[in-house]
Amino acid sequence: MGEEGDYMQHAVFWSDVNSLRRHYPGQVMRVSSQPPCQWHRKHPGESIARRKVSVCNCVFARRSYVFERTFRYFAVLKTDCILTAKLKILLAIIVLELAALGSWFYQRSTDMPANASVGENYFTLTDTAGIDRIILGKNTFKLSNGEWQLNEHYQADKPLLRELFMLLRKVEVQQLITGAEGESLRKDLETQGQTVELWRGNQQVLSFKVFGIKGNAYAIAKDGKAPAALYIPGYSLNIYEALTLPEGEWRNKNLVSTGWLGIRSLRIRYSETPDQNIDIRRDNEFYKVAGVQQLDSAMLYRYIESYRGFRVYSFVDNPSLRDSLRRLIPFCEMEIETLNGNSGINIYTSRSGMYGITQPANELVRLEPRYFARFLVRRKDFER
Q1: Rounded to 5 degrees, what are φ and ψ at 59?
Q2: What per-residue confidence (pLDDT) applies to 127?
Q3: Sequence-ordered list of residues with C-beta below 8 angstroms from that of 257, at least 6 positions apart, any chain
Q4: What whole-number distance in Å separates Cα of residue 143 and Cα of residue 150?
Q5: For helices 3-23 and 48-111, what crossing angle results, to 10°?
Q6: I need a surface site. Which of 209, 297, 304, 370 has the fewest CB within 10 A?
């Protein structure tokens, strides 16, 4: 090949390089801008044959470098294309899931009656102000002179009513029950469901029926189209159990609500250890404990003050159990004389728990042993 052939090779090579630069300017910039004949100008005395060899080596080296860079570029481009395709697939999946979720919410909003929506109206008490009448099945509560009366005979348990209001503010609809299961629940609610009503004067605030099956609570609003499963977020309590407590659970459980200077006398008689009986009386200056010479006045003060919360666990409507206990000798008998009147309780212990029979009302009550133990002191406890 002659001199003319050498320069033809140079022209072809630089035509390829310039073409790549125009199309992929960021990928082949490392190719030297010096023409391959630069070596010939530096060595003008070399023979034509040597020049031919040098030109061929130079062209081959530069073309190899260009081809290597071009291959790397297309490899990166292929990887980018694969990642772009995966991102497109992922975005398509996310869009489909969002569309399905939106369709589900739309279906729920169309199926659910307006007055049975989550956290509203028929199952949730949004405002407790002014509520003066509550109906829970057979139990009716009325607010009179700031005091809640239960079934027009008893004082209602204020702490328990506060818990009831709190639960009704938090109860929510978990789901609506439709189809054959919903129709079956509707029949159960109509025949066995307990009525729940709350009134503010002559305005009915809530009205629905509630029923429990297998630990779950279901309710249907007065004008509802389908039964609803109810739950209380963050609580394991079944709302049905709270709304269907018997009368004895709703009664005021305080037998005595007075403390220092409000108690005139207090007597405890133990059937098995009469030497530890307690007889506390208040004279003009202080209380005295019979049989105790060195009185621990601080201990006596704390004990008398504990009667500000002398409570039973619940009232039990079980005449047969009450009559059977009355035939037994009580564990102890307590008599409490206060400025507001006298009261007493006979305490019985058995395998089924601790019970008491109040005096003079002769009512059966259930006692919580760990709580009630604070009142069952002995004479020696007051000795200093």
Answers
A1: -65, -40
A2: 87
A3: 308, 309, 310
A4: 9
A5: 20
A6: 370
Q: How many CA atoms lie within 13 A of 236 on its CB side?
A: 0
- At position 33, the amino acid (one-letter code) is S
What is the distance between the alpha carbons of residues 261 and 377, in angstroms, rounded to a whole number? 19
For residue range 137-170, list pLDDT tens digits in order: 999 999 998 899 999 999 999 999 999 999 999 8
What's the CA angle centered on 149, arms 348 and 142, to 5 degrees? 150
Q: How far apart are CA 216 and CA 241, in angstroms?
A: 10
Helices (H) and strands (E) in the chain, counts: 10, 19
How many Å apart are CA 330 and CA 350, to the nearest integer?
10
Give residue 309's Cα distance to chain centre: 30
- Write out pLDDT tens, residues 174-211: 888 888 888 888 888 888 899 999 999 999 999 999 98
Peptide bond preceding 233: is omega within 30 degrees of 0, i.e. cis?
no
Would you list the domain boundaries of the chain?
A: 3-91, 133-250, 254-382
Q: What is the full DSSP assignment across 191-211?
A: HHPEEEEEEETTEEEEEEEEE
Separation of CA 207 from chain center: 25
- Quote the pTM value: 0.61
Q: What percent of the chain lies above the pLDDT cut of 70?
A: 72
Among 360, 356, 350, 352, smallest CA distance to 314 is for: 356
